[in-house]
Design a protein that fits this description.
about 25% strand, mainly beta, single chain, 2 helices, eight-stranded mixed sheet, three-stranded antiparallel sheet
């Protein structure tokens, strides 16, 4: 299914960035006209290795630059520089698996906007196929930080970001996910087996879709914090397998000195078929959650630092707690980082 991003240009092009506004909302997005890779350690070059002849990597229409000035079509198996910029100068409607199994020689961060991989000159009007960014960075080695990667939040196509980072075992920080209205399976398996991911992005969506978060964090064995889920109308399989196999979770039924952050499915939540099947299966959450007996409206508690006020309602009872939005934090990474990649690898 194809959907067109109907965006209205609100300001002129400035410093190679475009600010666009969706005509349905007052929200603005910054569209950086490239995807940028650079080493976590600024003193080191990165070597990007891939198979340019592999059609499944969908790189035929992409071009690269090391100075964001002169661009060359990608036709080599290795690019080496301290910074690598990539964009599309033609029209793509899908770029799925473009960087699947790509290897970086050093810990790397990615920024810029993924829409530049479709058509950097028409990012405000580009068309996206179902699954257009499916598996984009799947099993990419030494990709550590994606916190500055821009993902559009307007009119998501079905499966748009499905499996985007699946199996990228070195990923510590994921991108911001600002979409309020989701599409079918848009984030399904997005971070599956990202074994270094400790905190999830904030998930502000209020309108869910079938399978939207299906197995989103399955196998994220380092994940310690569950994000707030504010939607009140469930959809089939919306939370199915979402935290399956997350063996570092620590969620309990009663507040104590360690577990101070409240977490709950809203009391007004309307269920749908299989909405939370295996949501916490094989995780280290409390038995009630792991065994699939989640109680809607009940307040559970997880670890966190108290910084701001939050109120959760448990049926007719209101409990006030001060809590940080821990799930939205970003793990600091810089040239002095002592980060060590795990030895295990996702499928």
């Amino acid at each position: 299914m194809k959907r067109i991003f109907k965006l209205i240009l609100t300001v002129s092009i400035s410093s190679m960035m475009i600010i666009v506004m969706n005509h349905h909302t007052t929200n603005a997005e910054t569209l950086t006209p490239y995807v940028k890779f650079e080493s976590i350690d600024s003193s080191k070059n990165i070597k990007m290795t891939f198979d340019a002849s592999d059609n499944s990597n969908a790189i035929g229409n992409l071009e690269y630059s090391t100075d964001n000035n002169s661009y060359t079509p990608i036709s080599t198996t290795t690019i080496e520089s301290n910074v690598i910029y990539i964009r599309s100068n033609t029209t793509n409607t899908s770029i799925s698996e473009a960087f699947k199994n790509i290897n970086f020689n050093n810990d790397t961060k990615v920024s810029g906007n993924v829409l530049a991989l479709l058509d950097f000159q028409h990012m405000d009007t580009c068309t996206t196929d179902t699954g257009c960014f499916f598996g984009l960075f799947q099993s990419t080695q030494h990709l550590v930080d994606a916190s500055l990667l821009e993902l559009t939040s307007f009119q998501l196509s079905d499966s748009m970001y499905s499996s985007m980072f699946a199996g990228s075992v070195d990923l510590v920080n994921g991108p911001t996910l600002n979409a309020l209205t989701l599409s079918e399976e848009c984030y399904s398996e997005m971070f599956e087996d990202c074994k270094s991911l400790k905190t999830s992005p904030t998930l502000p969506a209020t309108t869910l879709a079938t399978g939207c978060y299906y197995m989103m964090f399955k196998g994220c064995t380092a994940l310690e914090i569950v994000p707030v889920l504010n939607a009140t109308v469930g959809k089939e399989s919306c939370y199915e397998g979402m935290f399956e196999g997350c063996t570092s979770l620590d969620i309990v039924e009663s507040k104590d000195s360690t577990h101070t952050d409240p977490w709950s499915i809203p009391a007004s939540f309307v269920e749908d078929d299989d909405w939370n099947n295996d949501m916490f299966s094989s995780s280290s959450a409390c038995n009630e959650l792991e065994e699939g007996n989640l109680v809607i409206g009940k307040i559970y508690y997880q670890k966190g630092t108290t910084t701001s006020s939050s109120t959760l309602t448990n049926n007719s009872k209101t409990s006030s707690n001060t809590t940080s939005n821990t799930a939205s934090t970003t793990t600091p990474i810089n040239s002095t980082s002592t980060y060590t990649a795990p030895n295990t690898c996702g499928d």
